[in-house]
Specification:
Order of helices and strands: HHHEHEHHEHEHHEHEHHHEH
Strand order of the largest sheet: 2-3-4-1-5
Largest sheet: 5 strands, parallel
Structural class: alpha/beta
Number of strands: 7
Amino acid sequence: MAHPNLQAVGREGSGESVPSSIDLRQEFDAVEIAPILAQLDRELIGLLPVKSRIREIASLLLVERIRRKMSLANTYPTLHMSFTGNPGTGKTTVAMRMAGILHRLGFVRRGHVISVTRDDLVGQYIGHTAPKTKEILKKAMGGVLFIDEAYYLYRPENERDYGQEAIEILLQVMEAQREDLVVVLAGYRDRMERFFQSNPGFRSRIAHHIDFPDYSEAELLAIAELMLVEQNYRFSPEARDAFTRYIALRKTQPLFSNARSIRNALDRIRLRQANRIVAHLDRVLTSDELMAIEANDVLASRVFSGGFDKERTEP
């Protein structure tokens, strides 16, 4: 059954009249998606192709909503998506904002996001996978199911792997209940392509493929400064220059995760700043001192001596 907000009006025998015209501005303002799009612009530095695609999808769904009001639509659009790109490029954030857009336009009932990986869906013994997968799907209904590193569901090299069972359940629900659930598959671009080649049922159900590019060095610096502002810190001019050098070095090292690596680096810088401050107890602190990140707080990183920072692995 279609979402109640999207039921076509004015069908024969309904007793309701079909509008011959609709004020587009009034309809756009009524669904209140502009604040979400503005929030996405504030939250994500760069990513212009991604933001443009999200606006295109929002426009498509707004028009679809209007077409339904005017009894011009008789099928439900496929909304499942694929987000490809390296870690730390904003895929989870975009999924959350997309859920808000879908909810306000009436294409999902609740607008929440359930984020999972293979371990949340696939069991370890016979009879374990189906209930795990179905429980996750139950929680996600009415919103968005975000499956990170989705390609790990498929492990053909292990004949006793239960990922295929989870895949079959997902495919069935993605088709049969696409009016009540949007699935977003996410992961590295090359691995996702191999996954789709091995599982054509997924590709046929995905309407929107969105690629998330890596951030430039200038964008990563802007992200760092935005994160600091949100936490009431700021770089001194010398520290800003040092962090610019840090970014250039860190990008060449293993396990670099874009904005996630920047966040982790700032966490370590804040630790060093706090240690520097507390090293001299007999004084009165000013707010400027508490906010200032100095060059030495940055330059103490092992990256500058040829090592590399050990990072957290969680999103």
